[in-house]
Amino acid sequence: MRIPELLAPVGSKEHLKVAINAGASAVYLSGKNYGARKFADNFTLDEIEDAINTAHMHNVKVYVTVNTIIKESELENVMNYLSRLYAMGADAVLVQDLGLLELINKHLPNLKIHASTQLTCENQLKLNYLEGKGVKRVVLPREMRKEEIKNLKTNMELEIFVHGALCYSYSGQCLMSSFKGGRSGNRGTCAQPCRQKYSIQGIKRPDYYLSPCDLSLYNHLREIAEMDIRSIKIEGRMRSKEYLAIVVSSYRKALNKLKSGKTASSEEISLVFNRGLSEGQFSNNSKRSIRAGHVGLKIGRVIQSGKNQLAIRLNDSITTIPERGDGLLIVKNDNDYGFEISQDPLITTLNHFKKGKNKQVKDLTRKDKVLVVKKVWQNRDADFNLNESEAYLTKRNRLAKKVKEIENRGSSYVKSKLILTFSIKNKFPLLKGRLTLANRKEITAEVTGNTPFEKPLKKSVSADTIKKQLLKLDKYPFEITQVNINYDGTLFIPISKINELRRNLLEKLENEAINSYKHKNKRITLDKTGPASKGEVNFSFYTNNLNHLKNIDGVKRVYLEIPPQDDSLTLEDDNYNLNYMISFIREAMEISYGRDYELIWKWPDITHDKLIRALNKVRGILNKMNCSLPIMSANFNAEYGPYSMNIANSCSAGSLENYKILTVSPELRKQDYEDIITSSQNPDKIEMLVQGSVELMKTRYPILYGNENRRNYENYLIDAKNSRYPIHKSISGEELIIFDGSELSLLEEINHLKNLGYINFSIDGRYKDDNYYKVVNIYRQALNGNIDKKELEKYSPKNTVANY
After folding, report:
1. In the chain, what are the domain boundaries?
2. How wide is the angle at C-alpha 585 spanned by C-alphas 579 and 587, nearest 5°?
3. Segments of 217-264 assigned E as strands
4. 659-675 pLDDT per residue, tens
5. What is the pTM of this model?
6. What are phi and psi of 776, to 5 degrees?
7. Is the dihedral of CA 348, 349, 353, 355 positive or negative?
């Protein structure tokens, strides 16, 4: 069993110190641009270099996030930014954009690449592709289950999240913030629409349907280590230093205990920010949060509430007993009431409390305890009955002392080993040092003093005195393992000169150690000019409606998706109905036989390996029936690529050489679309969605939990502005897709796009009525100058240009 790397989030310089002192073996951070957490403080380039130097002195690795999609106009700047990071000695960069993989391999082949969770690498096919691209580590999606992770085969390192916030959508597959709030999560500016309340048609009461509890796999660390996960990651670059200190130190303590076969427990991680904790999809045990903010540690239930007193029956498992100055949150349905404990609370037994004899308990480990809290006039009154409410401990004053101790500790998880050798050469003191870093690099240095030893007038300087001075490490995070003194103790030199000698050596070793990670910076220039497209304009049409196939005309390609048999909000992991899929495809091929369009089978954008095996089985059976079809898939191995692949620049499109057509991201802006088509070496390969409801979220979490699933509701999510978002299930039965209630519509831009060089346009007719195919003709007429918006509104009454 290998103990995994503990990877901590660092959103500022202050957080870096806390992460190192708390026991992180690596940190991840971002510059001011190109990181998926743009609203964190983040680092300037000079600050990144300082952070790398500081971390390396403490044997802590630094990974820099460059994990946004990169626009065409940014490519050269990003590559020169990466060149600077490589020169500084960054241990790796986290990347989402496929184009950057290609460019890094070409221009910075020795820079280590980690595939960000934003790349949504949920299956073996994607891992195989990334390994072939030289990626050293993959950050797996938080939606993967332990059985799925165990079955992966790769030489790359695997990294998983073990603690922190969970997104409702697969990372990299969420466009809701972009389309709903104009801020893209794929560009690091997520507006967190999943933390808002929504309604479902048929349920009047709004709830946090898209807000999962936070993740905590603290109790699964042994299992994770035995799975050979190389790195465990804590989320939270925008959280407080208290959160960072407590969570990182708790996980470090637990990992250290694993070495000796012991397990650890911690209630402290529930006392820093969390929305409630769960094991998420790792154990297929996700839960919805009860509020968007901090919940804390659930300690018990209110059994009595009066004007001046509150009694809470404590859970027997709780060892953290609330004290004066701590914060409590009382929650009942949609209501909550928070306050600070302003007097020392009383701990008594349930039996004594029932008898009205509140006697203080001395043994706080006993069961059946009741916490009696006095409420004073400063606390606001609750506007609901607190009886039978759940009680949470949200603030623990005692933690502040621990956080300060961690902050001022000045140590690191692994220290470099230092051997010192002191001698005299030609009467001058000589000090040599051999520093062994955690990565086994050996740094050697020596310094000679400028003041000679002399015969003593009164008293000589002993060898022990010199050794004592050399053992002082000042600020340096080294561990001196050996001191060799080659001196007989008969001469004199001022102690200040020995101290100066020591400081000079330590400074020299520090500089040598830091420089051992650095590389030469080079200027990178990219060729941005591509040939103009000369092909004819054509349309593609997405559908999962066989009636569309019977009537559609004027399209070159039809992307056919198999609709789910059951489109309810319930998520189930059942065996797939292969006969249904085979029958659907065969019927589609019979309808399409002899027609002008090419029929292409669109696979779901999210395909875990179990689904891939089922789809390949269907494909094999169809092939034996001479019913073979080309495939649209996001798995890096198909002929056609959906917009979920987040193609935002020509390098990304060019890197996927086996694809005939790739659809660019729908969240780009007008100038971006112009840049990508004019820079593309193969513009005929690029397609653009011009009409249809965009998929805003793809999720493995249910909308409804438990008994809610038994009810029959219409599949619409409704926000505070009464906007409706259709919800449909994937053919996998394990994912839901939330669509935009408005349709992206670029009818008035179609000729401008054509003039730029676009020749491939797509219209999404999935989940539309039988006549929606007529929209194709409306767009064809627009190419001839006849833009008929009123005709379009017959089939698409609510249109938007979104971010365009």
Report:
1. 5-166+213-261, 297-395, 417-515, 538-699+740-800
2. 100
3. 231-234
4. 999 999 999 999 999 99
5. 0.95
6. -60, -45
7. negative
